[in-house]
């Protein structure tokens, strides 16, 4: 079955249909059985930047906890979890699951080593070059730095995937100092873009708490003071008796995700019905509807505030964050001192833009391990 027919049968009228795509910067022949958004997904997952996410920090560096990094999330596992949550919501809402998956897999590709700590360092180092924002860096990777074709740069992704990522870049970057920036656009993005943003929030709220428990930065008793966690744990206890702490933690994380997803779905479906949303144009005019109810939104803010105080500002996290930042800063400076050692793609950036921007682009591609290895070599 051709993808256009499949989408006609399965997708809601307010979903983004691939046949209505604005296309690509360089036109391509239609594929006989893969939609444009399926092709986008495949290009993203086969990119070098995507593969490197497996060795980039989400929140906790490899050295925290047991020192092996065997449990807590990497940037790649976080991305896969966001994609999983987003696909679930997309299918329930009958919106374009292929587009949602592509957007979810793309959303963190621009992250440098060491997560938001690395982003803050690069933003400082590139202040006179326009700064550094991981969402904008993803667009830069997709349109300039990645090489898929011998005759042109970039991945030639669809306009909808690039526009979705550009909208993320236009918002303030999520940092531990600003956890939940509110969208300010009057003209809302596609519902597929909204769902991925909401799925990202659901994933990091739930899994940052889980990782912090596993590493030992917080305790179950401490999290029980947070209403969203406590109510989720109480639901688990009502179904199971006398759970060991590990089983309780895992079941509570599942319940926490399910509660947020269910609440999001209820709010979106109610908004669609109340506003009579029956087209993509109506979605764009409706404002952001992929939101949580006021009660759950307040509980999420409480949880995020707790994670900020108890986890993201924990002395051991800050210590490793500072050490990682120094290693990244040193790697950047070595690029400036020996520009001839930059790979060819980055020497082109140096010639066409600036050496500092080229150094930033290069360092941002590196994994945590590569930066730390470079620091060790520099120390001799």
Mean pLDDT: 91
State which percent range the strand residues make up. under 5%
Could you name the CATH topology?
Hypothetical protein af1432
Structural class: mainly alpha
Named CATH architecture:
Orthogonal Bundle
Spatial extent as radius of gyration = 21 Å
Measure the end-to-end span: 60 Å
Q: In which range does the helix fraction lie?
A: 55-70%
Verbal overview:
The protein has 380 residues and is an all-alpha fold. It has one domain: Hypothetical protein af1432 (Orthogonal Bundle). The chain is built from 18 helices and no strands. About 3% of the residues have low confidence.
Short summary:
This protein is mainly α.
Tell me the layout of helices and strands.
Elements: H1 3-10, H2 36-45, H3 48-52, H4 75-93, H5 97-106, H6 115-125, H7 134-145, H8 159-170, H9 191-215, H10 220-223, H11 227-239, H12 245-275, H13 280-285, H14 294-312, H15 315-337, H16 344-352, H17 355-365, H18 368-379
């Amino acid at each position: 079955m051709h993808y256009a027919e499949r989408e006609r049968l399965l997708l809601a009228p307010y979903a983004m249909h691939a046949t209505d795509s604005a296309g690509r910067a360089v036109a391509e022949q239609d594929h006989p059985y893969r939609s444009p958004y399926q092709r986008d997904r495949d290009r993203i997952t086969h990119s070098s930047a995507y593969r490197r996410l497996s060795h980039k920090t989400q929140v906790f560096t490899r050295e925290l906890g047991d020192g092996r990094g065997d449990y807590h999330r990497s940037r790649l596992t976080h991305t896969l979890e966001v994609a999983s949550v987003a696909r679930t919501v997309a299918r329930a809402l009958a919106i374009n699951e292929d587009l949602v998956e592509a957007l979810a897999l793309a959303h963190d590709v621009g992250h440098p080593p060491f997560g938001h700590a690395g982003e803050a360092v690069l933003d400082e180092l590139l202040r006179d070059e326009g700064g550094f924002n991981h969402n904008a860096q993803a667009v830069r990777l997709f349109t300039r730095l990645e090489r898929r074709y011998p005759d042109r740069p970039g991945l030639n992704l669809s306009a909808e995937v690039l526009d979705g990522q550009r909208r993320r870049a236009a918002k303030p970057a999520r940092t531990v100092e600003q956890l939940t920036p509110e969208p300010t656009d009057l003209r809302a993005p596609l519902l597929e873009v909204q769902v991925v943003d909401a799925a990202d929030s659901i994933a990091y709220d739930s899994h940052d708490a889980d990782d912090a428990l596993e590493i030992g930065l917080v305790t179950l008793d401490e999290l029980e003071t947070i209403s969203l966690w406590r109510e989720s744990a109480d639901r688990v206890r009502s179904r199971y008796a006398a759970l060991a702490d590990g089983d309780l933690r895992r079941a509570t994380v599942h319940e926490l995700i399910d509660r947020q997803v269910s609440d999001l779905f209820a709010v979106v479906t109610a908004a669609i019905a109340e506003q009579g949303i029956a087209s993509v144009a109506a979605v764009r005019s409706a404002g952001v509807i992929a939101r949580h109810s006021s009660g759950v939104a307040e509980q999420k803010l409480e949880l995020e505030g707790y994670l900020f105080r108890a986890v993201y500002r924990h002395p051991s996290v800050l210590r490793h964050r500072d050490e990682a930042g120094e290693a990244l800063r040193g790697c950047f400076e070595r690029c400036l001192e020996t520009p001839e050692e930059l790979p060819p793609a980055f020497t082109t950036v140096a010639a066409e833009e600036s050496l500092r921007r080229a150094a930033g682009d290069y360092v941002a591609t590196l994994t945590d391990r590569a930066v730390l290895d470079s620091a060790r070599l520099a120390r001799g």
